[in-house]
Amino acid sequence: MSAAHAEALEHPTATGIDNRKLAIWTFIGSECLFFASLISTYLVYHARMKGGPGPYPHDPWTAPDGRVYEQIFEIPLVTFGTALLLFSSFFVVMALNGAQRGNRKQLLTWLGLTIVCGLFFVGMQVYEFTHFVHKGLGYTTNLFASSFYTLTGFHGSHVTMGVIWLVTLFILALRGKLPKEKALNLEIAALYWHFVDVVWIVIFPVVYLMR
Amino acid sequence: MATSVLGHATEQVVAGERGGLVGWLTTVDHKKIGIMYGAWAFIFFLIGGLEALLIRIQLGSPESSFLSPELYNQLFTMHGTTMIFLGVMPFSAMYFNYMIPLQLGARDVAFPRLNAFSLWVFVLGGLFLNASFLFNAAPNGGWFGYANLSSKQYSPGLNMDFWVMGLQILGIASLAAGVNFFVTILNLRAPGMKMMRMPMFVWASFITQLLVLLSFPVITVALIYLMVDRTFGTHFFVPSGGGDPMLWQHLFWVFGHPEVYILILPSFGIISEIMPVFSRKPLFGYAAMVFATGFIAFLGFGVWSHHMFATGMGPLADTFFSLATMLIAIPTGVKIFNWLGTAWGGSLQFRTPLYFAFGFIAMFIMGGLSGVMHSVAPADLQQTDTYFIVAHFHYVLFGGAIFALTAGAYYWWPKMFGRMLDERIGKLHFWLMLIGFNLTFFPMHLVGLHGMPRRVYTYQAGLGFEVYNQIETLGSFVLAISLLVFMYNILRTWRRGEAASADPWNGATLEWAIPSPPPAFNFAEVPHVEARDALWEMKRKAGGRLPEPPRASGAGIHMPGPSWWPLWTATGILLFFVGFLVMGKVGGPWVAVAGGLFTAFCIFRWAFEPVDAH
Hints:
The complex is a heterodimer.
Chain A: H1 3-9, H2 19-45, E1 61-62, E2 68-69, H3 75-101, H4 104-134, H5 143-174, H6 183-209
Antiparallel strand pairs in A: 1-2
Chain B: H1 20-26, H2 30-59, H3 69-104, H4 112-131, H5 159-187, H6 200-232, H7 245-279, H8 286-300, H9 315-343, H10 352-375, H11 377-383, H12 387-417, E1 419-420, H13 423-449, H14 466-496, E2 498-499, H15 534-541, H16 565-581, H17 588-607
Antiparallel strand pairs in B: 1-2
Helix pairs in contact in B: 2-3, 2-4, 2-14, 3-4, 3-5, 3-7, 3-12, 4-5, 4-16, 5-6, 5-16, 6-7, 6-8, 7-8, 7-9, 7-10, 7-12, 8-9, 9-10, 10-12, 10-13, 12-13, 13-14, 16-17
């Protein structure tokens, strides 16, 4: 990138904030409304479990495998996944710190840990969804099912995107292409990662804990 | 334009910029992208206008069999959808693209390739929506896509699938552009251009982007629900499965009302540029104008249910939404008085842009007044679903937005193409449009109050509707003629229009400081802004003339190189949604998967593409 180009497009920004960083903040602001709509719909529909499983202990139903259930959630597992996701926000901060100081080992270690947590969370969700389907809760079974899968599914796909993004940065860092001067690339991904985490902090109590 | 009054050497220093078709397909220049937004919007606008003419012919006489009821439903749905998403919004986007960087004193937008991406997603989305006509399956459930009308049970064909996927595609374009312009306006202001020194058009655009960013995610979610209802058999809006059709209305109008301001705020901005320049006087009440715009946007999120008075929400909700709606009249009134205050005592230059600006103010006041009438819930119950509503929103969207966008066309044409549109033909265009517009839409107030329902393909003779409808149909053809006059003006200007100087109107904003049309890099040297109406201040300091450019040539300025990836990424997204359209057919899911993978591939190539190609 030549100095002339820097003059052309990257003259110091009027706010002092990098364009890409401001863009990710803007995008996050917009995403808030996306998740707000999904969460509101879940709140309206979560008790409409006509003809199938529901979120809380209620009338028991018989799953296709013949077993009788009263509620569908497995809170301990999800709590563990939630904890890992929360920790991963801390890990990515440590990775960013490594990137900013040019400490490649610190960067790779913590970024690797972040990715592992993210993968575990996605894996947990895949397990949860499969398990629910076996218990008789398909996507179209009832409105609780549809709004639950849509909300947590879109959150899960956001986590997946984040993992792909972080893996890309991890590979770049492995090849030595994420030097100190480019730490901003990780900072932007980390902002997105924190956001996905924060959204889950809202979703977890609303979906799994609230009665 | 090789020469200009400024004597700039306008050699275009763009690395790897190519000419011809490839140049247009791969460009990341905000000016070329702006022109393409305008050209495509105009094509779609003509299609939407043709649909309107067919509707008017059908309604020109009672019990006409010119159109079948099925086709009529498709035409009024596509007319509304086209004019909103493919006409007014991209026309505004043309001015955002072309003018915001120039008015800010910037060389391009913050993310030039993302800008090209927005354009191509919009174009492909528009073509996708209109391709539905080829399958005889154009959307037919109204531009609002109310639940039940849009459910698989009542709309089994592909019609509403085209609508859902089309709007989803267009939403991506709007959101990408929203992020881009939000960042551009905050970050790319020239030195000295504080927020409260920004031209009013930039302010209006800024607040419009805010509305886009906060309202489009809501319709994205609503469309996702409708899509899975129709494709996978969920029951989000299906009462038999416990779903609530009202949820659609709420989600739709939480988006839909801010959308109304997304359509009109850029027009407010254009008028706020034209009034001072042609009154030779700074904008009256600049700060009040800024805050009024912000207040309109803020209130715009709290009035959605005034579209739903007829659904029986109860007195409390009705009262709240009535009052909130009436409040909007206050900031809007502030704007009207500010425009009049700008003209008051000014040295009015009666050129075509000012004609259209005054036309806008007058017509918009009428649309605003009928809007206030709707805010009274009991009165609204009488007006809902009648032609009175159709009259209202055409007065604000045609009398408002289209008049203002046309004013902008006459005002900025010289800057964009280096030639002046003809004044005499322009004034003829104005009078024909004003007369045609009022002939078409004013009788709709009366026939609406007499009880003529909207969205119905015909009416019986002897109900007293005939005369009004005949006048309306006549008016619509006058409107069509006015558009032909405009097109003749463009053609004539293209071939032998008077060459435009850099600053033909004695402009107040920075786009007039550079040659017409501007060189690829816009400003040879980034300007320093010392006041509001930056260029007037510069000219005052230079003794009433355009200041000499500090540097003659743009040599050495490198602009971002062209890229194929925005277009390819947009194609991947189109493919993904085509997959959803044919989800029920053999191979449908694979088309969606292929589209998704191709999009991901393109995003990676895009991310790792060097920014400037030497």
